Amino acid sequence: MELTNLETKSGENKGAFLHLSHPAGGFKMWTGEGSDKDGRLIDKAKAEKVGVHVLGLESERVRERARQLSKKKLEGDDDAEEAGLDFVCSLVTEFVGLTQDGKPLVANEANKRAFFEQSDALVKQVMDFAGDKANFWQGDSAA
User: Fold this and answer.
1) What is the 3-state secondary structure (H, E, C) of 51-79?
2) SS (HEC) of the chain
3) Per-residue confidence at 50, pLDDT binned at 50, 70, 90?
4) What confidence score (pLDDT) does residue 37 get?
5) Is a pLDDT exceeding 90 seen at residue 138?
6) Given a cut of 70, is residue 77 above it in pLDDT?
């Protein structure tokens, strides 16, 4: 086996799409004419997935943010909840199928914070996804 077949970091730097589940209903969320107002799928041909583009925990950007947060903690800034929100925000690079006032939601810091403040279940989905290397692995799936 080639050593390079074990490489996972490039996929984590690139990131991957997470199709979000509704935080209360548990169903995969959709938008467009093929979905209802809560995001339930009615007609797949007329719907678009709702989700986020997520970096892996080993991505350079996420690791740098973790280092910054560790440094802040050592300097006496010990707000764990705020640090956790900062960290999970560093995982998201794009929103897909989410809008605010009818316009596509841009993945800036304020919008990412507002997104995660909607439900802890959204934080959990993103953290679980980011921590699963299989979501980012680019290997050959043929066995």
Assistant:
1) EEEECCCCCHHHHHHHHHHHHHHHCCCCC
2) CCHHHHCCHHHHHHCEEEECECCCCCCECEECCCECCCCCECCHHHCEECEEEECCCCCHHHHHHHHHHHHHHHCCCCCHHHHHHHHHHHHEEEEECCEECCEECCCCHHHHHHHHCCCHHHHHHHHHHHHCHHHCCCCCCCC
3) very high
4) 95
5) no
6) no
